[in-house]
């Protein structure tokens, strides 16, 4: 049953936004539940098999695009934005330009964002309940079949750019999203308008040309998919294109002109851990599984496991220079490598030595 709200809906929405800002979110918007256009886009994307091995994108039927099927009674969606950029884009470029350095997507340098945002969303829900009494809700942070970017666009937080990320005119795209599905009837904000114009910088910069057209990303070609979502071997045609990117890819964001307005995050949880913003490939390739689990505790990186971590780094080493210490590290790792890691180590050795 919907909660009985004594506050005027507009007043409650304004308070929710203020409470959200006080909790550390940079922006809060409200959307209705009509995601018809996004549903059509998703179905077309799935029909083209762009999801690759991400079977979960189709596994939940229409729950992803019809919120009330996922959370019964949902009438409004509170969408939040939290900025995460912990260093200047120039620092990212320096890492990408150094073949011995390990590039980790900036969102994964700090604490797992799922935990940070989920905690704040729960506090926001608790604050609402304190003000109005019990109400129906469910919070999400990339943890269920939710079209978070389409929802955020409808809630006025930004528009979905040609690279499929959400862009805000005043904040760029370096931010996380979270949602609260609720049975409260709240006034929806105005849908954000698109400001990509004729720009195609993200399409042109993509290392693997995964952005096959404006607003169309073939995940099977995407570096983030290949290094994070893919469980098996990285297809050989893509390995040289990965460069030194071992977990995700930020190229399309680094080149986006709207990111000149992005601000560094004040969140301590998003500051780099384990010096991942400065680590070399050899440093990280030396981690055994115990060390990997210890050093990625509380990090989004842990989800790929030690074997895919080594797979990615071996590929990156193969794209670097044939220094003696690199060849030694690859040969030493080969002695006890799994089949998955061994395949990429051998590829790297062949690439570096020509043997």
TrEMBL record:
Presence of the UniProt keyword tRNA processing in the record: yes
PROSITE patterns to which the protein is assigned, alphabetical: 4FE4S_FER_1 (PS00198), 4FE4S_FER_2 (PS51379)
Active site: 142 (proton donor)
Domain 4Fe-4S ferredoxin-type residue range list: 187-216
EC number: 1.17.99.6
Protein residues bound to [4Fe-4S] cluster 2: 206, 222, 249, 252
Binding site for cob(II)alamin: 64, 142, 166, 177, 224, 249-250
Superkingdom of the source species: Bacteria
Main location: cytoplasm
Cofactor(s) needed: cob(II)alamin; [4Fe-4S] cluster
Enzyme class of the recorded protein, top EC level: oxidoreductase
UniProt xrefs under InterPro entries: 4Fe4S_Fe-S-bd, 4Fe4S_Fe_S_CS, QueG, QueG_DUF1730
Any one GO molecular-function label of the UniProt entry: epoxyqueuosine reductase activity
Keyword Iron-sulfur: yes
Catalytic activity entry: epoxyqueuosine(34) in tRNA + AH2 = queuosine(34) in tRNA + A + H2O
Localization terms from the record: Cytoplasm
Alphabetically ordered keywords of this record: 4Fe-4S, Cobalamin, Cobalt, Cytoplasm, Iron, Iron-sulfur, Metal-binding, Oxidoreductase, Queuosine biosynthesis, tRNA processing
Function: Catalyzes the conversion of epoxyqueuosine (oQ) to queuosine (Q), which is a hypermodified base found in the wobble positions of tRNA(Asp), tRNA(Asn), tRNA(His) and tRNA(Tyr).
HAMAP family named in the record: QueG
Family: Belongs to the QueG family.
Protein name per UniProt: Epoxyqueuosine reductase
Natural source organism: Methylomonas aurea
Primary gene name: queG
């Amino acid at each position: 049953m919907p909660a009985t709200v004594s506050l005027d809906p507009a007043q409650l929405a304004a308070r929710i936004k203020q409470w959200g800002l006080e909790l550390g979110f940079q922006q809060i918007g409200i959307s209705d539940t009509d995601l018809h256009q996004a549903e059509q886009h998703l179905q077309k994307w799935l029909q083209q098999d762009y999801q690759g091995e991400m079977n979960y994108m189709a596994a939940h039927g229409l729950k992803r695009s019809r919120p009330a099927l996922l959370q019964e009674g949902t009438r409004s969606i509170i969408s939040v934005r939290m900025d995460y950029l912990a260093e200047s884009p120039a620092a990212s470029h320096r890492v990408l330009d150094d073949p011995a350095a390990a590039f980790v997507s900036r969102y994964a340098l700090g604490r797992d964002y799922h935990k940070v945002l989920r905690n704040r969303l729960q506090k926001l829900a608790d604050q609402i309940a304190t003000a109005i009494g019990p109400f129906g809700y469910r919070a999400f942070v990339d943890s269920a079949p939710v079209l978070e970017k389409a929802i955020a666009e409808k809630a006025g937080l930004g528009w979905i750019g040609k690279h499929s990320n959400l862009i805000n005119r005043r904040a760029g795209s370096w931010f996380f999203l979270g949602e609260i599905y609720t049975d409260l009837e709240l006034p929806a904000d105005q849908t954000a308008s698109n400001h990509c114009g004729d720009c195609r910088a993200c399409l042109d910069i993509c290392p693997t040309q995964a952005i096959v057209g404006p607003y169309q990303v073939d995940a099977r070609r995407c570096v983030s998919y290949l290094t994070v979502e893919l469980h098996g071997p990285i297809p050989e045609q893509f390995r040289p294109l990965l460069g030194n990117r071992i977990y995700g890819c930020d190229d399309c964001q680094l080149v986006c002109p709207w990111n000149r307005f992005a601000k560094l995050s004040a969140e301590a949880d998003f500051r780099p851990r384990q010096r991942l913003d400065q680590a070399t490939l050899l440093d990280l390739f030396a981690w055994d599984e115990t060390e990997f689990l210890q050093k990625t505790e509380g990090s989004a990186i842990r989800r790929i496991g030690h074997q895919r971590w080594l797979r990615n780094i071996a590929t990156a080493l193969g794209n670097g220079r044939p220094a003696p210490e690199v060849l030694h590290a690859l040969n030493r790792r080969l002695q006890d490598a799994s089949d998955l890691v061994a395949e990429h180590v051998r590829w790297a050795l062949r690439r570096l030595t020509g043997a």
